[in-house]
From TrEMBL:
One of its GO terms (biological process) is lipid catabolic process. Residues 485-601 form the PI-PLC Y-box domain. The keyword Transmembrane does not apply. This is Phosphoinositide phospholipase C. Its EC number is 3.1.4.11. Substrate binds at residues 24-51, 431, 433, 514, 541. One of its GO terms (molecular function) is calcium ion binding. Ca(2+) 3 binds at N304, E333, D335, E382. It catalyses: a 1,2-diacyl-sn-glycero-3-phospho-(1D-myo-inositol) + H2O = 1D-myo-inositol 1-phosphate + a 1,2-diacyl-sn-glycerol + H(+); a 1,2-diacyl-sn-glycero-3-phospho-(1D-myo-inositol-4,5-bisphosphate) + H2O = 1D-myo-inositol 1,4,5-trisphosphate + a 1,2-diacyl-sn-glycerol + H(+). It is a peripheral membrane protein. Residues 132-167, 168-203 form the EF-hand domain.
Amino acid sequence: CLTPPRIQADDDLKSMFVGTVMRKIKSRTWKKQRYFRLQEDCMTIWYKSKKAGNTHSTFSVGDVEAVREGHQSEVLLSIADEFPPDRCFTLVFRGRRGNLDLVADSSGEAQSWIKGIRKLIDNLEHMGQREKLDQWICDWFKKADKNRDGQMNFKEVQDLLKMMNVDMNEHHALRLFTTADKSQSGTLEDDEFVLFYKMLTQREDVLRVFQEYSGDGQKLTLQDLKDFLREEQLREDGVQQYALKLIERYEPSDTARMLQVMTFDGFLMYLTSPEGSIFNPTMVELYQDMTQPLCHYFISSSHNTYLLEDQIRGHSSVEGYIRALKRGCRCVEVDCWDGPNEEPIVYHGHTFTSKIFFKDVVTVLGNYAFKASQYPVILSIENHCSVEQQKVMAQHLTQILGDKLLKTPLHGKFPIGLPSPEDLKGKILLKGKKIGGLEDSMNGVVDDSLMGEVSDEEETAEFNDDHHRNDSIRHRVKQSLSKELSDCVVYCKSVHFSSFKHSQIHSKFYEISSFTESKARKHIREAGAEFVLHNARQLSRVYPSGLRTDSSNFNPQDMWNAGCQIVALNFQTAGVEMDLNDGLFSQNGHCGYVLKPAFMRNIDERFDPENPQNGGYKPLSLSIQVISGQQLPKVNIKEGSIIDPLVRVEIHGVPLDQAKQETRYIDNNGFNPVWYDTLQFTIHIPELALVRFVVEDYDKTSKNDFVGQFTLPFTCIQPGYRHIHLLSKDGTSIPPSSLFVHCQGP
């Protein structure tokens, strides 16, 4: 309903409005015909089976992240011999939802849908805030207009309020309805419904702030706006230019813009925009120094990247790699085993997880490594292959990745330290065992007689750790290594960790040790400052315990507190741990690298995460007034159930800073709850702190239900009146759900 006319007149969309029968493919044997059609709103795609009476399904174009043409998914590759690529395409959804694989009857029909959906996605991405708001209003109208007559009677409006999470008494609802029904027809038509929605969403909380600064209660003069920006938003530099920019960008009234004033509508638009967000927009961009050695950064890292579910029976898939890389992950993992016909395979060894070919993983890595970020990707190899198949692995890496694979030190000379992410842009680094050292391979010392014995640490270490050092499995497994695969390892040679003392004397900067979560925790407890120092010199990787067969995650914050760079999480598992990971890496251009604080990079400082106060740091206070919530999503689909929301603010950081506080809960209002509750925190090490806002549905008899969350680094918080745009359990946005807060402190 709000799509530009140029789009509605488009030939591809015209054929999508008419509808097309296509095959939905789930496997080689599951191929069923479905009728697909684009709804008039240009936002919803509707489909059902050809059989009469079957229920239909819908999805929103806004949920589609990308359209892939041809045989670009495992499912479509498995039927490649049956259907030509020009008739096949894949819809990839945001979050952790599975792909939709489709085959059209002709390449023309496939092209219409491919091009059409891409145009609609593009149109959505370029929509302004105002248009988005109108689109939501339009969507609600469609959902509520049950009899499709383009009008809404009072009964339909009451049902709509329930759908929208509003518990409003009949008297109040009727009053709004009658006020909006300008034509006095007893129903609401388009414009009247828009008016009804705007009265319903009237922001008294924002109006209160507006009127505090407005001389006449109608507008903010340039001076009023500057006062607000200085006193509340703590803007110091270039306030005049900034105020003019905000009026130019967010004020909808031409007259007001000409007079350089801001109306309430403009003020609200500013506060709900990225500039009014709690996350400082300058820190969303790439803003850090990227020329420090690799070990001076936290690196977004994934564990068992090939799994989409749990570790016992889960489905292995190259989609796991695509999803992780597109989220900015910069270290992915492969478990390689001997496969049939001399082709190495990837799966979780000795379990029932399905298997994929190593060469397919490498191909995906070549295609997707640098889509989200130009900075280097580390491929962490857990190698269980025979020497013969290791040679095949080396061949695939070299042939498929070509120049992207780093095979020799940069500039061909022996390095004295690790290169920087900037130096390594566009490069893929292999992490694995290596015969001899970097010096030997540079001097050409490594000959075939050196081929062979390296101990296979990780699997046995993981096993030992979790089975309390059972003596029968303590022996190190000796494994032969092929020279070809060894030569692919340059800056990330996997070595066994003995002790911090041993490392300090003997370790080389290009060596990297892996620790299970329990081992890492023990080191942090017993020698935190030593661990931080170790991580200022070389890389460490921490991975989940082998006992986490459900692919659950450990808290990554404990490991970042000790300066561990590669903290590998199961990206496929949603929860607080992945929220923290997403929160830390949402800064610095989502590039997957975050510079560690100076006190963790400096070899002369002795920072101990367990006793940070010894470093003479000055604590900061953070005060957050949680004012209100807007259009929080429903948790229970049950008819008529409305949430009782509360907000919890959590501080994740060094142990001394860990804290959480919550507001009271509001009865039966998920639409526009108001709290005005203030939560206070003291933060000793702000550089390591993350702040997580969680909304829950209060339940006095059982565990509260999760509604939405948003996590960001403490250092990225903008002070003043701010909106927080909430994310779902999967980390995807759920507009227009938000919180309105006032922050003081950072």
